[in-house]
Each structure stands twice: as structure tokens, then as C-alpha cells.
Design brief:
With about 290 residues, this protein is an alpha/beta fold. Helix content is about 40%, strand content about 15%. The strands form two sheets. The chain has a seven-stranded mixed β-sheet with strand order 3-2-1-4-7-6-5, with helices on both faces. Helix 8 packs across helix 10. The chain binds guanosine-5',3'-tetraphosphate.
Length: about 290
Amino acid sequence: MMDNNGFEKMNIQWFPGHMTKAQRMIEENIRMVDAVCEILDARIPFSSRNPDIDRLSGDKPRLIILNRTDLADPKITDAWKKFFEDKGYMVLLTDAKTGKGVKSFVPAVRKLLENKLKEYEAKGQVGRPLRVMILGIPNVGKSTFINKVAGRKAAIAGDKPGVTRGKQWINIGTGLDLLDTPGILWPKFESQEVGEMLAITNAIKADVLDKETLGANFMLRLARMYPQAIVDRYKFTPDPELNGFELLEQAAKKRGFLVSRGEYDIERMANTLLGEYHDGKLGRISLETPDD
Ligand code: G4P
């Protein structure tokens, strides 16, 4: 069944228990940190953000990291940066895979917590480390980011007995302790679109969903937002009259994904499309803008 915008309806339901536990872990540990750093996927800053984060973080200073900027549309990433800065957050742009932008992290935290540092100094606690909680949905690049920030100096302090598994303090040797938390998703998707965005960017395993429908909806988004990417990669100009499945079929034709005479393998094309997006082969594509 299609919605008014031409997107096929999908039934995305997801409620893994450990995610709720993780949420509880934030509540239990927020008191122990000086600041909260959220790592978001620069292609989907809205969908990769936990809507409860403001409530959970209380009044702690906040840093937003837009990661995967290598895969995102640079103009849109800049617009997101401005959007969050206007709301009073400190924002960094990173590509954790290559390490681009990562070295700004430590100075940014020190700036963010300038007053805290002064306070420690006044109390004679020079060298007392700042503590930052790192949050992010699964697969957003948290481990990669932390490893890059920590470099060889990383020392994993390990869990304290009796504390929720998965949490760990990482001393990065620059007067900074990071509290790594397991990837956190919220218990329920309020909108199908959020679920789709999370599936497209691999935060949720797409095999729990109908991949063909996911691919068709993604193709339709691409045709509307980045038609040139379809022209460049799949060698046809998307007809605005066609639905997502028809566009997938056209791409399958171009690729020669034939199942039988005159019938094309749409499922294979959907997988190919999502895989190529994941690998950055479609170019730098953002799926959400601050105006949405
Ligand atoms: P997590 O701890 O938040 O769960 O994520 P993790 O660091 O394990 O990163 C998930 C995948 O994303 C890794 O790829 C990692 O290399 C990649 N990644 C992290 N940051 C960036 C980035 O800024 N740009 C790009 N392009 N990729 C990034 P992987 O282990 O090879 O898995 P796969 O997802 O590529 O299959």
C-alpha cells in the first residue's frame, strides 16, 4: 500500500530489550560525567538522534559530532552544523574512518568545559580528568571514533563489578575520560520514515525488513533528491511518473539482472542499490535536511 507521497508502507517494529537497558544506563551514569557527546550520522541527523536525549542529558554541556561526513552532501552537512549551533550545541564534523576532523575533539571538549577546568584549578585539582559520555545509535561509528581519538594511548578501564555490562571508561591520556555506552536506539519508532532511514544506514539490520520495499522507497527518494546520482550510476533519467519498484526495475534492466525472459530481479537490484549507497558509490548523499 502506498502513502500520499508515493512511498510504499512498511511495517517496522523493533523492540530489543538491551536497548531499553542501555537507556537506563544513561540515566544511571549521567551524574558521573561532565558533558555528553552525541555521535550522529551526518546523512540522517534527525533519525539518528535519540528523541529522549534532551531529557536524559539534563543540563550537561553537549557536543554533537556529525560523523560519516565523507558520505554526506557537504552543503547539507554545513546546514546541519549551523542548525545545531543555532540551538546552542558545539558541533564537529568528522569522518572517523579516515580520522578526518577527529583531532578537534579534545580541544573542543576543553573549550566546552572551560568553566569546569577553571573550577578544578581553583580547587587545586589540576590534572583531574574531564569525563564525557559518548552516545550514538548502533553502527554510527562510535568505536571507530573512540579508537581514533584515543590512538595508542587508549586504556580500557573495564566495567566495575555489578554495573551494567557494555559500559566502559576509556582514559585517552589527554585529561579526558570517555564513557563508552552500547549503541542506543529508542524503543519504538514513531514514524516509518525514521525506521527506514535507520535501515538504509545499517543501524537496524535490514534483513528484518522487506529489503525490496526498502530499496524501492530509497530509489524513489533518490529520484526526487538526487536524480543525477541515478543518471551517473544506473544510466537512466528517472521518470517522475514512476514508482520506486518501477525505478528499481529500470535499474535492474540497465544492469542486466534478468531472472527469466523479460523479468528482472528487483530484489537483487534493491540489495545492490543499498550496498552501493553504503559504500559511497552513489556519491555524497544526505537523506535529511534541517528544513524537513
Ligand atoms: P559503532 O561502534 O557505533 O557500532 O560503529 P563502528 O565504529 O563499529 O563503525 C561501524 C562501521 O562504520 C565500520 O565499518 C566503520 O569503519 C564505519 N565508519 C565509522 N565512521 C565512519 C565514517 O566517518 N565514514 C565511513 N565511510 N565509515 C565509517 P565496518 O566495520 O567496515 O563495517 P561496514 O559497516 O563498513 O560493513
